[in-house]
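Worked Example 4.2. Consider the chain below.
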Amino acid sequence: MKRIFTLLPALVSLLFAGNVTAQFNCGSDAARRELIKSHPEVLIDEEQLRAFTKEYIANHSKGQRSGPFTIPVVFHIIHQGGLENISKAQVLDAMKIMNDDFNKRNADTSVVIAEFKNIIADMQVEFRLAQIDPWGNCTDGIERIYSAQTWMGNDYSKLHNWPREKYLNVWVVAKMRNGAAGYSYYPSSVNALYNVPARDGVIILHDYVGSIGTGNSGRSRALTHEVGHWSNLSHVWGDNNEPGQSCGDDDVDDTPITKGWFSCPSPQNSAVCNPPIRENYQNYMEYSYCSRMYTEGQKERVHAALLSDKSQRNNLHTEANLIATGTNDGFTQTCAPIADFCANQRYTCVGNSVKFINTSYNGTIDNLLWEFPNGTPSTSTDASPSVVFNTTGWQEVKLTVSNAQGTSTKTDNQKIFVAPTTTFATPFYENFETPGALNDFGWSSSNYDQNETYFTQVSNAGKSGNHSMMLNNYYARFDHDIDELISPPFDLSQLTTAQMNISFYYSLGSWDEDFMNLADSIVVYATTNCGGTWTKIYNKGGAPIVNAGYQSGFYVPGSDQAYWRYVKQNLPATFKQPNVRFKFQVWSAIKTNNFYIDDINIGSAPVGIEDNVLSQFFVQPNPFGNALYLNNLPSGNCSVEMRDVTGRVVLSNEINVNSDVYELDATNVSGKGIYLLTIKSGDAIRTIKVMKQ
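Applying the procedure from the previous section yields the following structure tokens:
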């Protein structure tokens, strides 16, 4: 006899991996503890569903059919234009596999061991892609959403959820934060409003969807497993993610007690927990990678869940809902396409070629037209045209697609950034004291999700002055929102080995008092081919990077060292090239606070020598006319050199400083534009940008 039923956990995660013998990590227990800590009411819903299930099974005669049940499904593919943006064919393949598994149509039931052949269940549950969306529009049941959340893979990645009483939501992502391949909540875990119904559904990695495209046959039962959890089935060894630890039970009468399996044993070696009874290692709720079946007992449990009002499962399969979602028998329609596209790179340079890819969905495409106002060609009817841009900045790209059912147009002004070809000489110092860094001086910012958080130049905080670049993370709404600050190109070819480094100051606070688990990270990349490929040169994340600690309000740092952290990173010799640019990428947590970066120094003095004596140096006015006033220079001899952006020296002086302000004659500097002013005092060196008006 089975053990007495214990309360179901609130969250169960699936951890498949490419190596079938690997041990896996899972945050299920921790997630459940946190959930119950915040909302112990979950236990009431779990107990109620447990009682309903027991009563249903007790009153349900064997062989009596409650089904069939039809469940409308929507796939939300969260992507950033990479492999995770899986094809419709891959989704259809996954749907076929899942329907075959649930309805005993999979051919590999023939290899189920003799002990379980007679209880392989036809679950009588069919899943159909929706043909009508929540607003009454035509759909093919697949929604594509461009978002950096594809790299997070948690509840905050569950974007654009459709009403769970009408659809089973499936989110497809590129990565999972907890290392899982997918997870789903039980109906009892997300029943109440306090548990946010938007969490309800399955979230899964793109390469565990189907057997084609990025999927493969070995991983193709992952969706079957996760929908099993969504249907109130636990792992066959019990309500945890620790198979192989101790013998456990799933409260289903015809699945024997088991420890759980990470690989497929021989039948004679499968009787471990209660010899000589062999265990159901071929069950879809196992980790054995030889899953072939559900049991009749699991079928009863699933039917009970679908007939329960917990999380409104009992509304999904009603005739009224099937009609509302276009999943009723015999209904079919052809939809108008929805325009969408991506590019093979986000950054490029003037004169370089960029490939655009049509990723439109929802309906077949009869006509297609690209428009590139600043590109060559300016229009195209190719599915994947290559375009050259000859103007700098963010470029407008427009795609129009149509068929007999309608037309759709998408215009995107932040899909591709074209950088100027003007290269700055090094050593180079940027303290953002001159306004217009994001427009006039070649810096650019990228707001991946085009939301409330983005880089901007501010005048109320700075390490060496009053200005810096700020990322307003105070308004972050989800973990791993990605924003970037990209530099103009620099000539590093003339730097000595000792000068091959990059340094900067940053300041970061948290408005969560317990910031030990924050998902923040600071990553610095470099490219030598105009953004075609980027090389990671610095990466730090988590609580250690929160140098300003807990900040309850909108964080603005002071100017003293306590609020700023110094970072210095040596650069590989491979970057001693004439056209190198840097990308400062910040991944924000939902409870992080503002991030500031200042005093970026490229090609500084030898490692270990900091330019402290010049840290307070600044010039006035900027833009300048016939004179510049050099402020806060150390007393004594200094050298001053001014170059244009090509590296040509336009001014060179040796000066003796004996006051707080030194007047530098600039009447011989001709031509408006940007110049680089370098000050040397002993071993210290400082280069800043100035502008001649």
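The domain at 424-608 is CATH 2.60.120.260 (Jelly Rolls). The helical segments are 28-38, 42-59, 88-102, 222-230, 296-307, 313-316, 319-325. Compare this with Example 4.1 before moving on.
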